[in-house]
TrEMBL record:
Keywords: Isomerase, Thiamine biosynthesis. Residues 7-182 form the Thiamine phosphate synthase/TenI domain. Transmembrane segments: none annotated. This is Thiazole tautomerase (Transcriptional regulator TenI). It comes from Ammoniphilus resinae. It is an enzyme of class 5 (isomerase). Pathway: Cofactor biosynthesis; thiamine diphosphate biosynthesis.
Amino acid sequence: MSKKELHLISNGKQSLEQFVDLAQQVYEYVTAIHIREKQKTARELSDWVERLIGAGVPREKIYLNDRLDVAWAAGVAGVQLAYHSLEPSVVKRRFPRFRVGRSVHSLQEAKEMESQGVDFLLFGHIYQTGSKPGLAARGIESLKEIVEAVSIPVIAIGGIKVCHIEEIIAAGASGIAVMSGIAGAEDPRGKAKEYMQAMVGE
Ligand SMILES: Cc1nc(C(=O)O)sc1CCOP(=O)(O)O
């Protein structure tokens, strides 16, 4: 079985100090840390990257949401693109070494993004979550449908708790992305370890 991915996503509410502290606790157990801070400037985001690296987070685990400019300047692993971001095909053509993720919310979008050459998809939200208030969850069946329709890794996101891992992995996902499940845990390091262990079936 290939290694499963655990992505931690920043929630736009924590200070730099809080997020660095969180990342420092969990980075050994996660495969990717996404800086998703829509209100921050390029300079601020680049400070976030430098502080994470200074705290021991490997550059190869850091992804910038949307901001190819910051990702490129900081020399991190890649970018997580959204519908309003640059087209993945453009990014891949200019920056083939970047690992490019794309957030998708339908089967059609997933297929289109695969054809644009993205490296992985984030699909959600699978379960009801306070991080996406007022929007109906897409459910495990739609995750299964997408996994079956594409051949690139699909990472599940949205409301994921440790108790959901079994059905997510059974649906064929290559991993999960989590915001509140780790950031809101009493022991984030222990929780990240639990998520990862549940995925690899330990
Ligand atoms: C950032 C994000 N994107 C989603 C999508 O469906 O694309 S769901 C989501 C929030 C994930 O947070 P939590 O783990 O707290 O539910």
